[in-house]
Amino acid sequence: MDLSLIIAFLVLGSAVGFAAGLLGIGGGMLLVPFITALLTYKAFPKELIIHMAIATSLATIMFTSVSSVIAHHRRGAVRWDVVRLLAPGILVGSWIGPWIGKQMNSSGLALFFAVFVALSATQMLFDKKPAGTRGLPRGVGMFGAGGVIGVLAGLVGAGGGFISVPFMTWCNVKIHNAVATSAALGFPIALAGTLSNVYFGMSMPDLPPGSLGFIYLPALLVVSLASVVTAPLGAKAAHALPVKTLKKVFAVTLYALASYMLYKALA
Fold first, then answer.
1. Cβ(166)–Cβ(123) under 8 Å?
2. pLDDT tens-place string over residues 227-264
3. Whole-angstrom Cα distance, residue 109 to residue 100?
4. Which domain holds residue 161?
5. Which residues form a coiled coil (predicted)?
6. Residue 76, Cβ density class (10 Å: 0-12 exposed, 13-18 middle, ≥19 buried)
7. What is the distance between the alpha carbons of residues 85 and 79, in angstroms, rounded to a whole number?
8. What are φ and ψ of residue 215, in 5° steps?
9. For residue 218, how far is the Cα from the chain centroid?
């Protein structure tokens, strides 16, 4: 990997880590479009670019989620009982998600990502949270909910917070507990999704040097290191900046990134 690409991934990882700490969101929706653009610029095989961007984004969550979970756990905010109930379904769904993605061509996968990000941006822009109307399901219900969260997260390379947080608040989990618990769920999502992307990607022809299945290891290393360093800075800045206003700005940014991915899907 040449110096210009290293610098680009350093800047990207720093920005994503800061945004994650500042706004309490995962970086997948930011990472995927920018990694897509960088790999396109470096003339990677076009049929692999979207798959590699999503897989690499998902793999970074294994590292970035740990510091977030530790911080939330120290405040006693993680509902570990909910984690235990959702995790089995999430592990299965996060393995299946990349397999579904492999069956889709690059255009279809980019289109799915664009629609998902646009919907998530709308949720953030209007700060829509479903009112708690029921309790958490049990047994098969939680396994099924975890499976849906895992499949969607594995397909778009995100930590699942845009799905798991609304689900938990709908089930009367307090919002700060839902956010903290979602952070804890990011690790099993990323772990199963990463292993799946390695397994299903290994059979693909023309993988670029530095790839492990669909994962581009140099990008994973640089982005993860940078984001882990800047995430605490973002969390500190959250106490001094108007986060609600920043979330609206971030939502508009997501619309722009969704538009880029739509362009990639239609080009």
1. yes
2. 888 877 877 776 677 867 777 877 888 898 889 999 98
3. 10
4. 3-266
5. none
6. exposed
7. 10
8. -90, 130
9. 18
